[in-house]
Design brief:
- It is built from 14 helices and eleven strands.
- It is an alpha/beta fold.
- The strands form two sheets. Strands 1, 2, 3, 4, 7, 8, 9, 10 and 11 form a nine-stranded mixed β-sheet that branches. Strands 5-6 form a two-stranded antiparallel ribbon.
- α3 runs parallel beside α4 and α10 crosses α11.
- The longest helix has 25 residues.
- It is found in: Golgi apparatus membrane.
- This is 2-phosphoxylose phosphatase 1.
- Keywords: Glycoprotein, Golgi apparatus, Hydrolase, Membrane, Signal-anchor, Transmembrane, Transmembrane helix.
Length: about 475
């Protein structure tokens, strides 16, 4: 099994940032037939890493319902709780290519426009009734669904809403209809909902929640606000984590300097748009280019020429090479262990309370960013996992053995694929035990102690690892 990971949206380095942006057809009078088509048509995964194929996977354009492995367990296991981490769905670019026209993308929700979802119209109607809902400040000042005829920077689009309506419906079919995780008269304290203060994460969380619990009672919904993209709550101060990040950013910078083809490509693109190369690079052109790629629209042109597919492929290929080196150097792993520990610690605490028979917080949803999911994947040992696409989902399932009620197990799923036995804490489980699932104590021991082994040194807890002086 092969995966692909890269850190992006908030901070690692401008040169490594990857963004995919859903875009509706420009209102420029051009028919789809008259515009250049750039979308590839892959049938099977290519034998070698293909930058175009990787980018297409990242687009994650809603189509047929996907197969998933969520909720699969031997018949004598009972589902106890579920913990869902999502990346927000498709959004408008955070950056634009200098001196090119800003893409005209409609961020209103239109039921008969692609991508379509049968619950889209009902979702809009239900969101319009939620003005009196209870959200932790400053979430109460955010719109509950995207609604601008011309998207604002970073705004969720219809594609992003549909992606999470699909996610929610898939999880509803598995966890509610099949496994009865929540009773029909579920209460507010059986949900735990948390999001960062961006409209795209709140709206993505609401879209998934609506697919999961259609026409939910607004009085039972409370979204907590998380100021940090790492979801570290009161445990965010960690000097050594920041040192790892600085070293990782330096590694990325030096790798970019060594790539003469990348620098040549940036130079060519800068001439086309008539700006200094440094300014173009700082404007993160891949963010806007992926918008055109994902929606099959020609790259921008000026009187000096056109940005083209070869430029795109060079930048994307460099990102893939950067991933390979990142895995070898292990600096990002150090950052990830310290970045992901607080949220993993919260999750196992919630699981342990569920094993005691408590019925609160049976379904937890964290609506987050790529820079939330990526460190968690890396810290779990899933270093080969593909970078979190738009609307990516990472799920922790807690199960009880009905034949031995005191025994509990966990499953980890990434975009519907069971990756439990690829994690650091359970990759050798089959060698030692005939049990078909991973014991919860493996995950607890890993989060409380073993995950710090990757950092070297003598620290076996979060505080010591964050403050060791020998780094």
């Amino acid at each position: 099994m092969r995966y692909f990971i890269k850190s992006v949206e908030h901070s690692v380095s401008p040169s490594s940032a990857v963004h995919l942006i859903p875009v509706s057809t420009p209102k420029n009078g051009m028919s789809s037939k008259s515009r250049k088509r750039i979308m590839p048509d892959p049938v099977t995964e290519p034998p070698v890493t293909d930058p175009v194929y990787e980018a297409l996977l990242y687009c994650n354009i809603p189509s047929v319902a996907e197969r998933s492995m969520e909720g699969h367990a031997p018949h004598h296991f009972k589902l106890v709780s579920v913990h869902v981490f999502i990346r927000h769905g498709d959004r408008y670019p955070l950056y634009v290519i200098p001196k090119t026209k800003r893409p005209e993308i409609d961020c209103t929700l239109v039921a008969n426009r692609k991508p379509y979802h049968p619950k889209l119209e009902a979702f809009v109607s239900h969101m319009s009734k939620g003005s009196g809902a209870s959200f932790e400040s400053p979430l109460n000042s955010l719109p509950l669904y995207p609604n601008h005829p011309l998207c604002e920077m970073g705004e969720l689009t219809q594609t992003g809403v549909v992606q999470h309506l699909q996610n929610g419906q898939l999880l509803r079919d598995i966890y509610l209809k099949k496994h009865k995780l929540l009773p029909n008269d579920w209460s507010a304290d059986q949900l735990y909902l948390e999001t960062t203060g961006k409209s795209r994460t709140l709206q993505s969380g609401l879209a998934l929640l609506y697919g999961f619990l259609p026409d939910f009672d607004w009085k039972k919904i409370y979204f907590r606000h998380q100021p940090s993209a790492l979801f570290c709550s009161g445990s965010c101060y960690c000097p050594v984590r920041n040192q790892y990040l600085e070293k990782e950013q330096r590694r990325q910078y030096l790798l970019r300097l060594k790539n003469s083809q990348l620098e040549k490509t940036y130079g060519e693109m800068a001439k086309i748009v008539d700006v200094p190369t440094k300014q173009l690079r700082a404007a993160n052109p891949i963010d806007s280019m992926l918008c055109h790629f994902c929606h099959n629209v020609s790259f921008p042109c000026t009187r000096n020429g056109c940005v083209d597919m070869e430029h795109f492929k060079v930048i994307k290929t460099h990102q893939i090479e950067d991933e390979r080196e990142r895995r070898e150097k292990k600096l990002y792993l150090g950052y990830s262990v310290l970045g992901a520990h607080p949220i993993l610690n919260q999750t196992i605490g919630r699981m342990q309370r569920a094993t005691e028979g408590r019925k609160q917080e049976l379904f937890a949803l964290y609506s987050a960013h790529d820079v939330t999911l990526s460190p968690v994947l890396s810290a779990l040992g899933l270093s080969e996992a593909r970078f979190p696409r738009f609307a990516a989902r990472l799920i922790f399932e807690l199960w009880q053995d009905r034949e031995k009620p005191s025994e509990h197990s966990v499953r980890i799923l990434y975009n519907g694929v069971d990756v439990t036995f690829h994690t650091s804490f359970c990759q050798d489980h089959h060698k030692r035990s005939p049990k078909p699932m991973c014991p919860l104590e493996n995950l607890v021991r890993f989060v409380k102690r073993d995950m710090f082994v990757a950092l070297g040194g003598s620290g076996t807890n979060y505080y010591d690892a964050c403050h060791r002086e020998e780094f």
